[in-house]
């Protein structure tokens, strides 16, 4: 990804030269979080952070690591299902926010006769189907084109850990993965689920492994460890498992 | 003028937080939002803003209520409330310490505190990544009383001790400016003429957001005129630049992992 670091403050007008120019088919510029378009062609920042542009996707956004998660269509999130009403489960993405809806039928293989039963406060890995400011955001556990779960659904066992939004983005990035998990994965078996809303769910089979891996991830997040630091941490953690 | 010291995002339960220390005033600010709003406070097309000012000691009084109203109306004009409708942005400002001389300086103590509260609230909003229309900078200006106005130039962002020494103060003014140089808030107290007010306003604007002209001015002043030294120093510290340096540090912290090995 072609990136250039420009610092912006709210209200700063992004110069046209700083924005990517469309190539080939993708002529329309996509604006991610933190940018606001004022017609006809002014783009201003609304939050403080680093301007990130991607020439290949013809997209620009502002990278930030603090604050509350705001749902964005297409994001993978770990939601807490707490209660069911009519045809939906009411899910929480972050505490103290209006709940998002997860339809009963948005599960793999669900029909009107066989509805999924979720125990209260269970964790569900799902995708944000739609998010707008005027409607509660909608979640889904199936890929709309295939009707398959694709790994989405109820998370059993394990334990969720809080991480920063930037860390979640980093773990879900296209290049994917952090060396910590690769190094540890060579020695112990575990399952990690990353939600864009600042949660990572770890299932290591037993409590000790789960806690060790979860805490190691949090440590990488807080210490902003690079590749080398992560390998060291992985070795130290493996000793105690 | 000494640049304020700031720590961002140090409270891990709040969505955004900032501690701000300047001239012995120290304030902790926390922002939660956008969160669920109570039914009676809900606004159909914009976000509700709640400001809580907590004094250094005791319970809040009408003075804090007054400050809350001022901060609320100022922040309402810079938060993009229409982007997050039917939610609540909750801002809590806890005054941690005040200079000892604050009460005895003989000026309105709520005005001396106001610029610091505004800065704290704004930094906490930045930390919480709430969508904002523009930036905010604010400054306090005190005009000491004297037979001739030239003898005592207006004090720019004075410390409590400076205010005490310059007693009696004729009038004090608080100005807040948006990033584009628009006046957001003006609170004045005392006796003053329109010329004095306008001079104070110009001075505040130079400090808050005088980007280009201000740099030229600095060069000019260096050439000669020793009498203007105080002003030159004051102009050297531009609040806009200070804000950028604060954000720079925040971003560097966030991007640290990219360069770490």
TrEMBL record, chain A:
SUPFAM superfamilies attached to this UniProt entry: Eukaryotic type KH-domain (KH-domain type I), Nucleic acid-binding proteins, Ribosomal L27 protein-like
Any single biological process term in GO: U4 snRNA 3'-end processing
Keywords on record: Cytoplasm, Exosome, RNA-binding
Residue ranges occupied by any K Homology domain in the UniProt entry: 158-207
Residues in Exosome complex exonuclease Rrp40 N-terminal domain copies: 29-68
Keyword Electron transport: no
Subcellular location: Nucleus
Matching Gene3D superfamilies: 2.40.50.100, K Homology domain, type 1 (3.30.1370.10), Nucleic acid-binding proteins (2.40.50.140)
A Gene Ontology molecular function term of the record: RNA binding
Annotated Pfam families: KH_6, Rrp40_N, RRP40_S1
GO CC terms, sorted: cytoplasmic exosome (RNase complex); nuclear exosome (RNase complex)
PANTHER family registered for this protein in UniProt: EXOSOME COMPLEX COMPONENT RRP40, PNAS-3 RELATED
Protein name: Exosome complex exonuclease RRP40
From TrEMBL, chain B:
Intracellular or extracellular location(s): Nucleus
Record Pfam families: RNase_PH
Alphabetical UniProt keywords: Exosome, Nucleus, rRNA processing
One GO CC annotation: cytoplasmic exosome (RNase complex)
A biological process from GO: nuclear mRNA surveillance
Coiled-coil portions: none
Protein name listed in UniProt: Exoribonuclease phosphorolytic domain-containing protein
Source species of the chain: Clathrospora elynae
